[in-house]
Write a structure and sequence with these properties.
Layout lengths: L1 H7 L7 H5 L12 H13 L9 E5 L2 E7 L6 E6 L1 H9 L21 H14 L15 H18 L28
Antiparallel strand pairs: 1-2, 2-3
Length: 186
């Protein structure tokens, strides 16, 4: 594993002490892509071990719970003794002082200002989305008249029409301005 990690990530520096510790790793493939990973981890990061809706019944002799069988996707019911239920539940309770999620680096609360600055810098590097006007054949006559009227009024007020700053094609037409309190637009 050390050789493979060094081959794939030569930039990663792992202290030698880390390799002396015995590790037990269980990796299971769970979907593809970032959305699948986020969906999988979200269940464990901010939720409890079992929700009340999955506890079917509770009496002096035990607890009946619902759970989904991974292979078939079917919902099953399992009856556990009270001691076994508590043992399984308490496996998900962290010792005092430990946190499920550790925020560090830009995600630490004391670094909010730097995180906001990083987000802005990343947005500046992305090209702005640009959508071209639909072809004249696809638009109805009322829309064409509105665009023509706006172009004429814009051209007479401030000179020739501006070019789209994103794609450098077409004409940038100012139809109106949106203000924060105008939720529905002009």
């Amino acid at each position: 594993m050390v050789a493979l990690l060094k081959k794939r990530r030569p930039d990663l520096v792992v202290p030698e002490a880390m390799w002396r510790k015995p590790w037990v790793v269980h990796c299971t493939a769970w979907g593809n892509g970032a959305d699948a990973v986020l969906q999988y981890l979200a269940r464990y990061v901010f939720r409890i071990a079992i929700t009340s809706s999955r506890i079917v019944s509770l009496d002096d002799s035990g607890v009946t719970i619902r759970h989904r069988e991974r292979a078939s996707g079917r919902w099953l019911r399992t009856r556990l003794s009270g001691h076994e239920f508590m043992r399984r539940f308490l496996q998900h309770v962290l010792p005092k002082g430990l946190h499920k999620v550790r925020y560090y680096g830009l995600w630490h609360p004391s670094r909010r200002e730097q995180a906001a600055r990083a987000r802005l810098l990343l947005l500046l590097q992305q090209p702005a989305p640009c959508s071209a006007w639909p072809a004249a054949e696809a638009t109805d006559q009322a829309t064409d008249r509105l665009i023509d009227d706006a172009t004429v009024s814009h051209n007479t007020a401030s000179g020739p029409p501006r070019v789209c700053p994103c794609c450098k094609l077409g004409h940038l037409v100012c139809i109106g301005q949106l203000y924060p309190k105008q939720a529905t637009g002009p």
